[in-house]
Amino acid sequence: MVVLPEIFLTAFFTVLLEKLASGDLFNLALPKGIHSRLHTWTSKLELLEAVLSSAEEKQITEKPVNMWLQQLQDLAYDLDDLLDKLATEALRRRLMTAQPTQASNPSMFRKLIPAFSPRAVQCDFNISSEIDNITERLENLLKQKSDLNLMSDHLGGTRSRRTGDERPPSTSLVDEYSRFYGRGKDKQAILAQMCLGCESGSDHRFRVIPIVGMGGVGKTTLAQQIYNDEEVKNSFDLNAWICVSDEFDEFAITERIYKAISSERCEFKDLNMVQVKLREIISNKKFLLILDDVWNENYGKWDVLSRPFQVGAPGSTVIVTTRNISVASIMRSVPDYHLDQLEDEEICSILAHHARGWQNFDAHPGFKETGEAIAKKCKGLPLAAKSLGGLLRTKESPNEWKDVLDSKIWDLPTENNDILPVLRLSYHHLPSHLKRLFAYCSLFPKDYEFDKHELVLLWMAEGFLRPSETHREMEDVGFRCFDELLSRSFFQRSKTGAESRFLMHDLVNDLAQHVAGRVCFRLEDKEESNVQHMRVSLLKARHSSFIRHEYDGSQRFEAFSRVRKLRTFLPLPVFKSFIWYNFYLTKQVIYDLLPQLHFLRVLSLSGYKIFQLPNTIGNLKHLRYLNVSGTRIKQLPETVTELYNLQTLLLRDCESLTKLPANTGNLINLRHLDITGTTQLKKMPLGLCKMASLQTLSKIVLGRRLKVNELRGLSNLRGALSIIGLHSVMDAQDAREANLTCKQGLEELEMAWSSDFDDSRNEMIEKEVIELLKPSTNLRRLEVKHYGGVEFPSWLGDPLFSQLAHISLSDCRHCTSLPSLGHLTSLKKLHISGIKGVRTAGNELCGVGWPHVGDAFPSLETLEFVDMVSWEEWSTNLSEDDGNFRQVFPRLRELIIVGCPNLINISLPRLPSILVLKIRDQEEGGNGPTLHDVVDLEGNNLEEH
């Protein structure tokens, strides 16, 4: 049986129906006379939506249904493109009418008059033609659905189980051979959690131990080994193995437990009687129950099933195997046990055993190289090794093994392949909206590490994310969806340790490619020579990706020349810093190919050595995501400001960029503007305050015209913000209007004045400005540079800033005292440099004056003082009158004092955690004081590092 790629449309239809109900769209359609067509489309789509579940059930085994769904999918994309075109035109007209007219500006006046130019007439004719085409295709698909016997959900009753993807039921019998490979430590860890031979010490009458891992990793095998262990058998009075799998039916599962424990037929017909009888049997008996392959996320169902277990003897145990952390979370009474993949050597042994009955390939050189290469393809999954081993039993020669090595897992015969149904089962249990998100990840090559935040931006740009009642922002919806896919083992954390980096197992990547089918096209290097094959593959593709080459010319993208409906043009990698990269993209691609891709939602040119974008970029009206990070562009064309749908504009590390378009404020849907690393960007345009949706604004460069109060309307800002040029603020009330206190999402803030301390600086204004720029107490990192006031703001050191973990105060040369920071309970790193007005530092740094009980600087690990040229004395000797401090710097590990030549006395209490202490002049070998000249640390035994 050929397993067809699945078409998933339920979530897509929800989006289309929402768009058709848009008020702006209706207002545009009314004068054009197409509103009746929109109503007709709504009713027809609702009829088609009603049969989607039936069609998605049948498409696995019925090719005509799959072909019908493919046509419906193409129609859905084309309809979405048309609705987006209409919605964009409605938005353009709304923006134009919102702008003030000027009689003295005839060109502006003409823009506001409805145009009847030949071009406008042609545009209306094209839309009318597209509408006719959509209507005809809708009617044809409605006629075909009856011939295919597709039933509406409300008429068809309950959903049937997908016959092509059922997991074979498991048994408690263990494969004796498998017990010897790779799971010894895992087994011992589970046995330790079971606390064999001792009474339960928890509040629970029975413990639940979840074993969590991706499909095929060996959860069931591990549970079998535990269940059949002699010590385990002797420790329990009753034992039962239940394969739960797809449907969590409380009555059916209780009945099966009763049969397994009592060895009797169950004559009872209702749940109550079965549970009462089961309760009698297990009362005061120590039982072991294995629930294999559980998918239920409904706590109520688990609560009902588990009620009879409450009367078991202490030490009773339920072991649950599941692929979903959410399932484990509603059942567990001890932490989940996450099962990792096996090492290649262990996988190789499993493969050799199932293929030939060998222990390994060492004695069989003809098969060794190929066999070990096939084992690597299994990427640690024992089920893959077992399945491929079974397939290889019929292959007698090394050449036949080589054919298996070179074929994709999905090309292997399904009758001899358990991998496909196991992984597809995980996929089928996904909600419809997650299926679409997962399939999109097929754009990533195998072993590709992607960034969580970047992926969410791409999902959002493609229109996959919709605000919900609990998560109003699309980004929050995206992160929640990502975490759900992670919890279901579709993603894995990168082994590099980077918090936001993830990847997919190779077989999961194959699954993503399979379910995405023709919609996603990944340009592989080995396919580039076959232009005709690529053209066929791209014919219906909507999303494309490729790995950047050192030189990407028009020949590489020749197959793209006839593609018109592509939504994604994505070179990889996406997220790296490209400062040192020199990838070349020819002008033919930029000026000839890309402007023809009118339906692009995602366009990335990041990392290419390009110097400008064409004016025609403004014609890509559907564009939501534009990434030109790491390029050599000096400025963006003004037509970029006509991309009214743009949500994400990434200009990171564009070191040559000198300015942004004058009308950047017209991008009212922009949510993320990343201009980190744009060192030549010295001024920014007015109108930023209009971009009320903006969440990421990495920096704002103030000037003579651009005031800090441009931030007033940006209440949704998140993450990091640098405010550059604060010396230009002449009216402190502008700082008050910036309203930083209410920007709850800001976690990192940089405040920077000019490094030129000339006569134009006003210390009083600067003191008032920094006072009024008080940020939200959610701040985690703060940097203050070149501040010209004589004292720091009163809010700096307020204990309410309990999340501040990093503070840097640099070149605030006129300040005469240090701020009181000792009450900041989360502060881990404090850097102070260039504060030339400070001569002495005493107890005020610890926070004397603030009400406090506890340690001063309780979390501080690194303390740095640099270039404090006037600093002479640092003494911290707290008395009872200084507050209720128990200890100062209890966790300080590094104390670094550099370039403080006049510091002649340091007197500190004992530092119990200090590891690194460095005190020296700015220049190595200087004549300043040494460690032993200036330090009195109350008995600290340290050497200078």
Q: What do these coordinates show?
A:
34% of the residues lie in helices and 15% in strands. The chain is an alpha/beta fold and 945 residues long. The chain has 6 domains: 10-163, no CATH class; 169-338, P-loop containing nucleotide triphosphate hydrolases (Rossmann fold); 344-417, Orthogonal Bundle (Helicase, Ruva Protein, domain 3); 439-518, Arc Repressor Mutant, subunit A; 524-697, Alpha-Beta Horseshoe (Leucine-rich repeat, LRR (right-handed beta-alpha superhelix)); 790-945. Helix 2 (23-32) crosses helix 5 (63-98) and helix 16 crosses helix 17. The termini are far apart. Mean pLDDT is 84; it is low at 101-122, 155-164 and 928-945.
Précis, in short:
The protein has 29 helices and 33 strands. It is α/β, with parallel strands linked by helices and 945 residues long.
